[in-house]
Amino acid sequence: MAGKTTATVDFDIDLADRKIMLAIETAEKEIAEKVYSEVKGTSKFIDRTGNLRAGIKLYKSKYARGGYIVHSSAPHSHLIEYGTADRYDLERDAFRGKVTARPFMRPVGRKYKTKFIERIAEELELIK
Fold first, then answer.
1. How open is the CA angle 113-27-111, to the nearest 5 degrees?
2. At 111, which helix (H) or strand (E)?
3. Rounded Cα distance, 114 and 119, in Å
4. What is the DSSP string of 21-75?
5. Quick one: pLDDT at residue 75?
6. Bridge partner list, 59
7. Whole-number Å distance between alpha carbons of 106 and 27
8. Is the distance from CB of 80 to CB of 52 less than 8 angstroms?
9. N-to-C CA span, the chain
10. Distance CA 24, CA 51 (A)
11. What's the average model confidence in pLDDT over 109-120?
């Protein structure tokens, strides 16, 4: 009678999960810092008062899925990013012009989206 032979494949899934999460967190932080640095140093707008540039901050997200957030707290940052239509002043019965959009955050975010995936892949290669 022939004997049976078995091979058991067993690994620590928790350890693998921790290594994968560490790889993702490492890539997230590195890319977020690059996004922050590029947004903060952009020449897409003229910052006369310094408030717009000073309002750009990098935060670690407090939510369960984690990640990082590059945020501008300057009250006029959305006007620079998205622009405005012609503005009309009812009190003076006059047009006040418009603000031409000068996106400084969205293009940088798009630029680094694919770099983030590439960076995760690099980190995962290091785990092997």
1. 20
2. helix 106-127
3. 9
4. HHHHHHHHHHHHHHHHHHHHT--SS--SSSHHHHTEEEEE--STT--EEEEE--T
5. 93
6. 69
7. 19
8. yes
9. 41
10. 33
11. 88
Mean pLDDT throughout 88-116?
A: 90
Mean pLDDT of the chain: 87
> Residue 74 is encoded by which pair of tokens?
């300057």
Tell me the longest C-alpha to C-alpha distance in the chain.
103
Q: How many residues does the chain have?
A: 128
Query: Which DSSP letter does residue 12 get?
Result: -
What residue ranges do the domains of the chain occupy?
Answer: 14-74+105-127
| Residue indicated by tokens 């897409």 | 44
pLDDT in tens, 41-87: 998 888 889 999 999 999 999 987 778 999 999 999 999 999 999 98
Six token digits for residue 102: 């000068």
